[in-house]
Design a protein that fits this description.
Layout: E1 7-9, E2 12-14, H1 22-35, H2 39-62, E3 65-68, E4 71-76, H3 79-86, H4 90-121, H5 125-140, H6 143-154, H7 159-166, H8 181-205, H9 209-217, H10 222-250, H11 254-260, H12 267-276, H13 280-311
Antiparallel strand pairs: 1-2, 3-4
Length: 312
Amino acid sequence: MTSPAPIAIDGYMQADAAPPGGFARRLAGARVWLRSERGPVHLFAILWAAMVLVPVATSVVMSLVRTRGVRVLWTPSLHAYRDIIETGRWEVLVRTATAATVVTAICLAVGFPFALWLAKRARSQKLIQFVWMALTVPFFLDPSARTLVWRGVLGSTGLINTMLLKLHLVSEPIQWLLFSDFSVYLGLVGPYFPNMVMPVYLAILLIDNDLIQASADLGATPAQTLRNVIVPLAMPGIVAGIIFTFVPVMGDSIVPTLLGGGKKEFLADTVMSLSTAMNYSGSAAFATIILVLTGLLALLFVLFRRRAGAAA
């Protein structure tokens, strides 16, 4: 009786080895799949779904069932959404959405012209590098320390009131500069302004200068070129900037607490209090509402872009 012939596996000779089984074939197929062109893309999609879509889906499910402490009863119910209305927490949602809308509008109104200038008018590379460095500074600062600086500027004995009093422009300190909606909005604009500028800048930078020049050669005014050429082509960046600004502002808790003086409760504080009280279905309901609002916002802008493209 002759012994089985040696089998070459991965460049090595192994005697008395059986033919590769099902696991070996699946392993070899996985290696081929990972080395293919679409393999890494599919792997990234799977990981993204596991880390993003699964938690989001879990939040939606948790908002539709009853919980008792850490226990999930798996009884379908809309009590979490009913409690938001009956307890008056819907006012917190409206207040936070209003603040996010105002801050996003301010960032867009200031950020779009700034991004347009930076992408098409700025010529000095050193200046562009300095601007980008300045835009990234907020990401390296502690949020609490960055926000507390505004107290020294807006307070009754702060920089602004001191200057106004010395110039005899006011007879007493302006109280509404701090611990008000104004101070909250001002404190939110700074940290999230780069979120608006970056995607808008990249979208405008990709617009071919020949298109802008051709519009001018055909007799279009700068305003017409802006409205009919630049804005439609930059719309993906504008939509991304709005989403990247609106959603984080909705979840900010540091600025409203430090600059609002705790006078008004915002969404992040409500979610934290519900989670501390182990009302996980209530906190999940708020998260689901924010998810729906974000989805509707993105859908509206997609429909607007399609309509604008069809009209063009």
